[in-house]
Protein: GntR family transcriptional regulator
Organism: Salmonella enterica subsp. arizonae
Amino acid sequence: MQWSIEESWAPAHLIHDVDAIGISLYDYFRSRHIYPQRTRSRVSARMPDDEFQSHIQMDGKVPVLVIKQVALDQQHRPIEYRISYCRSDLYVFVCEE
């Protein structure tokens, strides 16, 4: 069962070889001495659209959590922007600073 759909963007100048990323963008960043230091997150809820329902196979009466995050490096520069669409009936969002 799929719980979420994520979209992620990173500045092109930080990715020298897309194939070298593997399964973890953050492992790739660390290998290039780019260290995520902080994340800003915004969480909202909305009703799922037809496309989301078809991918996740869920009832349209359950809201979706929309989490928009910006990850920043040591100099507070953005290194990733991510939008996550998560089933609210199966997902718990925890934020620690």
User: Anything to note?
Assistant: The radius of gyration is 15 Å. Residues 23 and 96 are 24 Å apart (CA to CA). The first helix runs from residue 25 to 31. The mean pLDDT is 90.
